[in-house]
Amino acid sequence: MIRGINPQSKPVLKQVLxxxxxxxxxxxxxxxxxxxxxxxxxxVSQEDSQxxxxxxxxxxxxxxxTGRTLHEGRRLHRLKIQGTSQGIALGExxxxxxxxxxxxxxxxxxxxxxxxxxxxxxxxTRREDLTLRVINTVALEDYLRGVLSREAPDYWPIEALxxxxxxxxxxxxFQRVTKxxxxxxxxxxxxxxxxxxxxxxxAATTRAVQQTAGLILLYxxxxxxxxxxxxxxxxxxxxxxxxxFDVQPLKGGVSCSLCYASPFYSWQRRLSRADIGWALxxxxxxxxxxxxxxxxxxxxxxxxxxxITITGKSRTLLLSGFEFRSLFGFDHIRSPLFSxxxxxxxxxxxxxxxxxxxxxxxxxxxxxxxxxxxxxxxxVFYYRGADVVxxxxxxxxxxxxxxxxxxxx
Length: 409
Known about the structure:
Blueprint: H1 10-19, E1 28-29, E2 39-48, E3 50-63, E4 69-83, E5 88-90, E6 93-95, E7 99-104, E8 110-113, E9 116-118, E10 121-126, E11 132-139, H2 140-151, H3 158-178, E12 186-187, H4 203-211, E13 215-218, E14 228-229, E15 266-272, H5 273-282, E16 291-299, E17 305-312, E18 316-320, H6 321-328, E19 338-343, E20 346-352, E21 360-361, H7 362-370, H8 375-382, E22 387-390, E23 401-402
Parallel strand pairs: 2-12, 14-21
Antiparallel strand pairs: 1-23, 2-11, 3-4, 3-7, 3-8, 4-5, 5-6, 7-10, 8-9, 10-11, 13-22, 15-20, 16-17, 17-18, 19-20
Helix pairs in contact: 1-8, 2-3, 2-4, 3-4, 3-7, 3-8
């Protein structure tokens, strides 16, 4: 691993970009039948018992399993769809089917879900608990237009936006290739990439997507999951916190004071003993009695909380950094990079950064762009050893990906 590259030294970065780094070994995954990498399947809703559908423009509604046409038209006004014990209800009409697909017939057709306009097609499936799963199948580049505008401010320098666009495209493509046999590739929230659909698109972020069209990151010729986050708070994290990923560009340890201008670089939270007890009582962990102590009992090499020990009167609970943040909300406990100080009937968390800390630091990318670095130089600073390539150069070969634990499936 190359550590401590000075962001002021552009020639060094350019040299790293040109030669790459090839440490480490992981096994690839390649599908016998390559999935269509021009589109992606986004789970935009998974637990709603009812959704509302609107369509402007030519469209058709077909059954999901057989493709039988149920309806065709030019406009659809606020149709409520819900799951029933017999199948699916379209308004007042009960159908003995488990899924429908709404397909646009023209590029200017807009399908709206719960008032949110989306590009592409929608598939609505009834689940066993009668909730609905809605999957938006959309062109990859159109998907990115709805992602980048939510993941980065449109007033940021274009090179920072381009770097994030390439990372977002690579992440989406990695999910597309490795989840081809599953029902969807990504979710439409921050657990994958925040996806706002058509109305969230902005001119500057769309331009960044267009100027990087087809550009992705590869390590030793293979896709890897290009995680990224808002603010690292000083140093990036190893991807093992996201799963059994051990690939050179995601080994973390990148010293980054570049995100100091982020409003999330430093933060503080106060958790009373009662707050902790109530949060546990409401969660699947259950009550552990009156809270006696809260400590970080193990840290990762980057200093982030790997294990938090909560001591109650009746029992002791061990949580990972992710589980602890999830317990109180990721917006409330912004990152696992924090210290804990007991104060009277509470604990004060002094923290740094926002997000898991793996991969590209967005506020760091902003600062590098302000210093004149290109998108490619920004990417190689955070993903050490990766190469920026074009999908056009891969059209005659299968796209392979490095997966968790280096195993194939």
